[in-house]
Amino acid sequence: MVKGANVGLAALSEDVGSVMVSLGWSSATGEGDADVSVLLLDGDGKVRSDVDFCFYNNPVAGNGSVQLLGKTPTADGSEDRISFDLDAVPEEIDKVVVAASRYGGSRFGELDDLRLTLADSAGDGLVRFAVEEADEVSAVIFGELYRRSGEWKFRAVGQGYASGLAGLATDYGVDIDDDAAEEDAREQGEQGHEQEQGQEYAEEAPLPEPAGQPTAPARVPAQATGARADDVPAAPAQDGPAAPAKPARRPRTAKKKVTLPRTTRKSLADNESWRSARLFPVSALKSDRERETRATSVVLSVMAQVPEFGRRLTAGFGAPAGRMETFTEVTLPHGESPRRPDGVVRVERAGKLWTALVETKTNGNALKPDQVQAYMDIAARRGYEAVITLSNDVALDGSPLVDVRIDGRRKHKVALWHLSWAEVVHQAQMLIRHEGVGNAAHAWLLQELLHYLQHENSGCHGFQNMGAAWVPVRRGIDDETLCQGDARALEVIENWERLVRQVCLRLGGELGQKVLPVQRARRGSDPGARRAELADHLCEQGRLNAEIRIEGTPGVLAITADLRTGKLRTSIEVPSAEPGYPLSRVKRLIRRLAEAPADLHIETLVDGPGAGPRGTLERLRPEPADIVPKGGAQITGFRLSLFKGMGSGRGSAETGFIRSVDEAVDRFHAQVVAQVEAPAPRRSRSEEPTG
Known about the structure:
The chain is α+β, with helices and mostly antiparallel strands. It is built from 14 helices and 26 strands.
């Protein structure tokens, strides 16, 4: 579409009761991001109240009809997704505006390939709009959905706001609260003190609101419209030792939600051998069939009982926002032999049903194409909307886990979606540890679910096998017999990409931050061709490379697995834009890494050709001048690296490759990256530059 054009959605597809809008952008360095927001407007072109402003700290609006789903990896980067249940949008809403904003003085001109795509509930793309001429603006309206004669239409807008999201939101009637940042910081400090006292989350939870009573409209914090929480200026420095700065939080919404405390209450057990009673026990599981049956029932039941969790898992599949019911071991006719899918999910909204069949695998078992094909055929005949597969595997763009045949003669389309157990765990962690749920009972249910999924006997441990090609490829690299074009190298590349995506899900769930793989490929390139090129590099160099970006972290975390030497390298490049003499800048870095491991490698990055000096932290602590570049070369940054032995097995056992990657990333983030993010101690006057 071109700027200003509009189109009726019903003319493009029959499955537009629910649609998915994705916003994307790219940059030459892989850096740069923006926050997505949605405004629901009435007939006067204004929000009814501030709760109609949907942004990162208020991700659900319009009675659940609009939901921000966050970022998802794509073949060439990532996209922010927004789920719209158009049939459930309140009747008072005439228009829905989709926008994005940058923060910290950044502008959209620093990003490339600004685009919006819109897909129907079956996942078929309907609309693509490229935004141009957004150089000096910090907020952009990408498009809008609006009603005309009872039909939903889409208009490509592409309008920029030099005043940022604050100007955009104010124009549409959003009330900006300048005092919210101070109030939020004060509340965070009080909550942290309470958690240090070891109080249980159930004791801190607010009582559920009486049914039928509306919540007070939320005033939108100023950070949401101009700068993120981490852009708020720090308090002026005082004399004496500097107090450690607490990490800034994103602005909260008015309605409190329940999350789990950081500290747990002391157990009343007589001794450590006593085991807590669990809602979902795992001790009786003895076979794969029992694991699949139990896991399916546990997950589907919690989805039905915790609306935030159920909606989180199904919104991306085109499900509406409504009353959810789930079923297991349902028998459905299919020729001479009835089929029994592992589960069924049904969502009812305004008298309409959305139905998905669920096929589950645990313990690393692969999905069976004939089973999935049969469920696709059954769903098409019965008018169901989707088939959802759930297994340890991680789906990749352009590389389907199961090839199914789609009968083009059928008018009704059935979408095939995949969830990994790692993604289910990630969503549960985000809700109970970072974002919160409606009440204490929901938090407890999610905690029990998380305990079950992470238990070693559940079989729900995510991707855990590098595949049959792993050992032959390693041997081929060792004896230099692996040739370019070998299909086994391509299989290893695909499994490496799955592992990296799972690492991002796990780390993001623990930190409560966006953690995504960085793709350096050209936008729009074929995923298969990109992986084939990486497979050739593996054959030639014997190394697997990946980069992940952690929100709030300077630079990207690089992972290199050298199959020739059996070493894993985790590293990050830290820019050095601080003023001062080179030696002072090096000393500040060394002090910031006071708790880092002694075997940390530090390399000085210099402007111009050639490499800078390097050394281990153990050697540099007494002699920091050893990594000051000679000849007056300008320091541009530092590369920090840790090395670890690489597991040889293809699985996730103690000596497995997958576990060694997890441990290397966890150690590097906890002992290096987390310290780099923290503020450095104050310098003494003797260290200040005098020139």
